[in-house]
Design brief:
It comes from Chromobacterium alticapitis. This protein has helices at residues 2-33, 35-39, 44-49, 59-84, 96-104, 113-145, 147-151, 159-172, 178-181, 185-206, 217-226, 228-232, 234-237, 244-249, 251-254, 256-284, 292-295, 302-333, 356-373, 376-404, 410-432, 435-470, 474-483, 505-514, 563-573, 601-616, 620-623; strands at residues 343-344, 353-354, 487-496, 516-528, 539-545, 548-555, 584-594, 631-639. By secondary structure, the protein is of the alpha/beta class.
C-alpha cells in the first residue's frame, strides 16, 4: 500500500513537471493547428445568408443556422477528429497519408487490387489538400482585409492590392523557415481567440435569446422549414470546419494532449461564442447579414481588429503552407510523388522544411485566385467542396483501418464511421451544388494533383514489377561469378537497388557492358517503412560471398535518406574500416519506360506522364547526398 502511495506521488510530481511544457505546446498548437479553424468566423456565417444559395435572415433561420454551426463543431471536430481520429495515429503521426500507410503497409507498390484502390482513394484525399493550400491563404487574408471597407468605404479599392501584397510577402519569407516566421503564431492566435470570444460574449449579453441555438432540434426544424434550400446551405456550414484536418495531421508536431487542451481550453469556447454573438447581432439587425463579424466590432476598434484579423489570417495561411510542404515530403518518401528539393530550415526540428518549387507555384496560384475572384464571399463558395471531399475520404479510410487492422465488428464500424460518413456525405452533396459558383476550382486543382500522383504511383508499380521479373536471383549470380570469374579492380562499388532480393539490374548491366567488378561489391537498398521514423538500428548487413555484401537501410516516411551516413555505418558493421571516398563508386540505374505499340490509350497516357515526371524529378545524386564525381548512371529502355 505504501508503495502504491509512493508511486502515485511520483506520477503526480511528473505531471506537475510536465504541466508547463504541455501548456507551451498547447499555446504553440493554437497557432499551427487552429489558424484556419479560428479565422473561419470572418466569412463562414455570412455565406449562409448571402449569394445565390443564401436563406433569408429571419429569426428562426438565424437560430437554425447558428445551431448547425455549433453542432457541426461539436460533432465533426470534437467527436470525429479529437475523440476518434486522433486515436488512429501512426506512432504519434497523423494525417491522411499516415492513415493510408497503416492500411496498406510497406508494400503499397506491390499490393493487390484492393491495396491499389485504397491508395488511389488516399491520394484523392491528399490531392484535395492542395486545393485548400491555394484557396485558404486567398480567402482568409481577403476576408480580413475587407474589414477596411467596413471601417471606411473609401478604402475599398485597396482591399485586393493589399491582399496581394501581404500574400507576396508571406511566400517570400518562407525560405526563412516556419520556425522563424512563426515565433508569434501561438500568442497571435491566442489574442485572436480572446478577441472573438469577447465580441461574441458582448452581443450574447445584449440578446441571450440566441442561446436557443444550443438545442439541436432548432437545426432539424431549420431543414423542415426551408426544405431543399436548407440542405443547400450546408455548403456554408461546412466552412466553419475548414482546418479540422490539421488537428489530425499535426499530431506529430505537438502530441494529442496539447492539441486537445488548446481545443477545449480556448479554441472551441471562443468559436462557439463568436458564432453565437454573430447570431445575436443578426436577430436584432438582420440587414447586417452580409458582414456580421465586423458588424460586431465597435467603431473605435475596427482598425485594430482588421490588423489583428490580418495577422491571424497570415498565421492560418502559414500553417496550411507548412502542411502542404509536409504532405509533399511524405508523398515523396512513400513513393507517391517525384523527388523534389527539400531544404531543412532548422537544425533542431526535422519537421521544419521548405520546398522552393512548391512555394513559388503556390504563390502564383494564390495570387491568381485573389485577382480572379476579388471577393471573399465568392471564394468561400469555392472553398467547401475540397474540404468536404477530404473529410469524407478520411472517414472512409478510418473505417478501413478500424475493420482491417483493429478488427472492429461490422456493427461498430457502421455505428461510428457510418454515422460520421452520413454527415460528411451531406456536406459533400450540398457543396457539389456550388460547382459552377467556384467549386470547380479546388476540384480541378485536386484532380490535377491526383492525376500526377496516380500516374507516378502507377508508373512505379509497372517499373517495380518489370524490374522484379528481370532481376537475377543472387545465388545464381554468385555461382556464375565463381564459375566464370571476371576481372576485379581495387575499390568499392555500391549498387543502389529498390529491392532487397536478387541482383539489381544496374549491376547486371554493368557486368554486361564492362565485364569487370570492384573487389568489394555492396548492394544497397533503402526501404521506406510505414512508420514516421525508424526506432533503433536502421542498418542491416550481410556478406553473400564472392566479395559481395548486401546492405538494407530502413527509413520512415518523415525522414530523408543519407547514403554516405549509411555507408559509413555499414562499413563498420562489415569490418571494412573507413571507406576511401576516391576508391568508392556509386552506381545508379535509370530505366526509361516506353509503351508497347499495342498498349491501350490509358496505359500509354500513364507511361507518358510518368516518363515526363521522371525526367524532371530531382537528381538521385543530390537526393541521396552522393558525391557527384563518384556516381555512375546506367540507363535501360524498358518497353511495356
Amino acid at each position: 500500500m505504501q508503495a502504491g502511495i509512493r508511486n502515485g506521488a511520483i506520477a503526480a510530481s511528473d505531471r506537475k513537471r510536465q504541466a508547463p511544457q504541455t501548456a507551451m505546446l498547447a499555446l504553440a498548437a493554437l497557432g499551427v493547428v487552429y489558424g484556419d479553424l479560428g479565422t473561419s468566423p470572418l466569412y463562414a456565417l455570412q455565406e449562409a445568408f448571402n449569394g445565390d444559395h443564401g436563406v433569408r435572415p429571419t429569426p428562426d433561420n438565424v437560430v437554425g443556422v447558428v445551431s448547425l454551426f455549433l453542432w457541426s463543431l461539436i460533432l465533426m471536430v470534437s467527436v470525429k477528429y479529437v475523440l476518434v481520429l486522433m486515436r488512429a495515429d501512426n506512432k504519434g503521426e497523423g494525417g491522411i497519408l499516415a492513415l493510408l500507410a497503416q492500411i496498406t503497409g510497406e508494400k503499397a507498390e506491390k499490393g493487390g487490387r484492393s491495396t491499389v484502390l485504397w491508395v488511389l482513394l488516399g491520394l484523392a484525399g491528399a490531392a484535395m489538400l492542395y486545393g485548400d493550400g491555394v484557396i485558404t491563404p486567398a480567402v482568409s487574408v481577403l476576408s480580413a482585409m475587407e474589414g477596411l471597407q467596413v471601417a471606411t468605404p473609401a478604402l475599398s479599392a485597396y482591399v485586393v492590392p493589399g491582399t496581394v501584397a501581404i500574400l507576396l510577402l508571406l511566400f517570400m519569407v518562407q525560405p526563412l523557415g516556419s520556425g522563424r516566421v512563426g515565433v508569434v503564431f501561438g500568442p497571435v492566435l491566442a489574442a485572436w481567440f480572446v478577441a472573438i470570444a469577447a465580441l461574441g460574449a458582448a452581443q450574447l449579453w445584449q440578446n441571450p435569446s440566441i442561446l436557443q441555438a444550443v438545442n439541436p432540434l432548432h437545426g432539424l426544424s431549420y431543414f423542415q422549414r426551408n426544405g431543399f434550400a436548407g440542405f443547400v446551405s450546408l455548403g456554408a456550414v461546412v466552412l466553419c470546419l475548414t482546418g479540422a484536418e490539421a488537428l489530425y495531421a499535426d499530431m506529430g508536431h505537438f502530441g494529442a494532449r496539447p492539441i486537445r487542451l488548446a481545443w477545449y481550453g480556448l479554441a472551441l469556447p471562443s468559436l462557439l461564442l463568436s458564432y453565437l454573438g454573430q447570431g445575436a447581432l443578426l436577430l436584432d439587425h438582420p440587414h447586417l447579414s452580409d458582414r456580421p463579424f465586423y458588424s460586431m466590432v465597435p467603431e473605435w476598434g475596427l482598425y485594430p481588429m482588421v490588423a489583428l484579423a490580418t495577422l491571424a489570417t497570415i498565421v492560418a495561411s502559414q500553417a496550411l503552407i507548412t502542411a502542404v510542404f509536409s504532405l509533399t515530403h511524405q508523398s515523396v518518401q512513400l513513393g507517391f510523388f517525384p523527388r523534389v528539393q527539400v531544404l531543412h530550415t532548422s537544425g533542431s526540428h526535422k519537421g521544419q522544411i521548405y520546398l522552393p518549387l512548391l512555394n513559388w507555384l503556390l504563390m502564383l496560384a494564390t495570387v491568381a485566385v485573389v485577382l480572379a475572384f476579388r471577393q471573399s464571399d465568392k471564394l468561400a463558395a469555392a472553398f467547401g467542396l475540397a474540404v468536404s471531399t477530404t473529410m469524407a475520404i478520411t472517414t472512409i479510410l478510418f473505417a478501413a483501418l478500424a475493420r482491417r487492422r483493429w478488427h472492429w465488428p461490422w456493427w461498430a464500424v457502421g455505428l461510428v464511421a457510418g454515422g460520421l460518413f452520413a454527415i460528411d456525405l451531406a456536406f459533400w452533396l450540398a457543396n457539389v451544388l456550388k460547382f459552377l459558383d467556384g467549386g470547380w476550382l479546388p476540384l480541378t486543382l485536386g484532380l490535377l494533383m491526383f492525376a500526377l500522383m496516380g500516374c507516378w504511383f502507377g508508373g512505379r508499380r509497372l517499373q517495380s514489377k518489370e524490374a522484379e521479373d528481370r532481376q537475377l536471383p543472387i545465388d545464381v549470380l554468385l555461382s556464375s561469378l565463381q564459375m566464370n570469374p571476371v576481372a576485379r579492380i581495387p575499390g568499392v562499388g555500391v549498387f543502389l537497388s529498390e529491392s532487397a532480393d536478387g541482383a539489381p539490374l544496374v549491376l547486371l548491366h554493368h557486368l554486361k557492358h564492362n565485364q569487370v567488378l570492384h573487389e568489394t561489391v555492396l548492394l544497397l537498398t533503402l526501404q521506406m517503412q510505414d512508420t514516421p521514423r525508424v526506432q533503433g538500428e536502421r542498418v542491416a548487413v550481410q556478406w553473400l560471398g564472392a566479395g559481395v555484401g548486401r546492405i538494407v537501410a530502413c527509413y520512415g516516411y518523415m525522414e530523408e535518406p543519407d547514403v554516405p551516413g549509411v555507408m559509413a555505418h555499414a562499413a563498420e558493421l562489415l569490418n571494412l574500416g573507413e571507406l576511401e571516398p576516391l576508391a568508392t563508386s556509386y552506381y545508379l540505374g535509370r530505366q526509361t519506360l516506353v509503351a508497347a505499340p499495342r498498349s491501350g490509350r490509358l496505359k500509354r497516357w500513364l507511361i507518358g506522364v510518368f516518363s515526363l515526371l521522371r525526367q524532371n524529378e530531382r537528381s538521385a545524386t543530390l537526393y541521396f547526398r552522393l558525391p557527384p564525381n563518384r556516381v555512375v548512371e546506367l540507363g535501360a529502355r524498358i518497353e511495356l
